[in-house]
Description:
Elements: H1 3-9, H2 50-63, E1 67-71, H3 74-82, E2 90-94, H4 99-109, E3 115-119, H5 122-128, E4 133-139, H6 151-160, E5 164-168, H7 173-176, E6 186-190, E7 204-208, H8 211-224, H9 230-241, H10 243-262, E8 267-271, H11 281-287, E9 294-299, H12 302-311, E10 316-317, E11 327-329, H13 341-346, E12 353-357, H14 363-375
Helix pairs in contact: 1-2, 2-9, 3-4, 12-14
Amino acid sequence: MDISTICLHGCDKRYDTTGAVAVPIFASATFAHPGVGQSTGFDYSRSQNPTTEHLEHTIAAVEGGAYAVAFSSGMAAISALMELFSPGDHIIASYDLYGGTYRLFFHISQKNGYKVSYADTLQDIEREITPSTKAVLVETPTNPMMRVTDIAAVAQITQKWNLLLIVDNTFLTPYFQRPLSLGADIVMHSGTKYLGGHNDTLSGILVVKDIALNERLRFISKTTGACPSPFDSFLIVRGIKTLAIRMERSQETAMTIARWLTGQNAVKAVYYIGLPEHPGHEISLRQASGFGGMISFSVQDEQTAKKILESVKIIKYAESLGGVESLITYPMLQTHADLPESERFARGIDACLLRLSVGLEAADDLIADLKQAIKDRV
């Protein structure tokens, strides 16, 4: 079955006998037992809720996994994921990484006794492996520098050393990239972004193939309690229905804008994996079916960057990404503000870098908006 059809129809609603086309919102914290020692399959919404179960079955099917566990936010999902490990365990992560994940690792995980190191190449990953290494966490494309990692090549390394391979698939979504088919063990999403797609709710998802891993994650979820509300689960299910068409439109517009940006004198560099000159373009062609709607670009100076942020009219200067509205973000002060300055600069996250999440507006309107913002300040 085509992935766009799976996005639309999700999974069978085994608990619904009404014939409702949209998944019902089961706004119940608890469920009655038919008898002592008996259960309908639903006992307490922290453990499972019918609306949330529908979301989990749907994203598992879309991602090509067997199981999924939903959380109240992307960071809640990553925090739960870290509970798989014990003090003294070592995790290798992408060198370029979402600032919130870095903040979790630096301020929480290390305090709890986990060791985290960062790698930029396959050689770096192998070099960082120690007897205490338990997992490799890859973000591809990375946030915000759009670096691309060869997932299958990393999987060969993790399988050789019996390590978990975790892939953050937020930017490309399962519509364009399916890491489990390339050897990943766990796929994670900030469902807040493209899966929800409307900038109106928070969500996180972990997807796996292995039943034992699923049971461990579900136990952690039930125990720590960061479950989504039934209404939030409904919103993410609704968003997934239009994922295919939104990703196609966003990608088409992003390619047009990226090409336009490359011709602007005020723009020093454009980071979009769909451009043939991007260093990760060939890998993307092998492991993904599309390039997505995320663009980062550097302008000539800090003043130009700030004036663009203050001058855009259609595009909103705001954090987050993946929604129908285009958003422009200043990573230095927003998503990666908690990185030490030296770490930010080493990764290329300086005062000249902007990140653009391309929404569903007309390409000509977005270009006109960027053009007037750049023209007035150059």
